[in-house]
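Narrative summary of target 7.
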Amino acid sequence: MKIIGFGMVASLSLLLAACVSDQEIDQDKCSSFGFRPGTDAFSNCMMNQNTQRADDERRFLDRMQADEQRDRDRKNAQRDRDIDTRPQFDKDGNPNFDTEGNYQGCHGVGCLVDNPDT
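Modeled conformation, tokenized:
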């Protein structure tokens, strides 16, 4: 029972900590710098904190977008490398691969003209 009670107290304290707003954090930070609420210096500190938070969020989102673009580019590059450019059928319409995917097609001089339509 003590473990359950401790877990509930810990959970409740985490929930209450999550209720603190950014503005309250900024006010506490500006007050810790020695600025008094209602003064111009305090207002400037609050504006600077807000600007810094917006810049941090923008940099974070830009980084996420760059990472996603990098992942898409890598995936597309890998897909381009995975495409098999060998002809699937020879000039007589016979498959160039066996049932296990092994290439059985042309290996000689005329390989570049294996076109089933000719």
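The chain has a mean pLDDT of 78.
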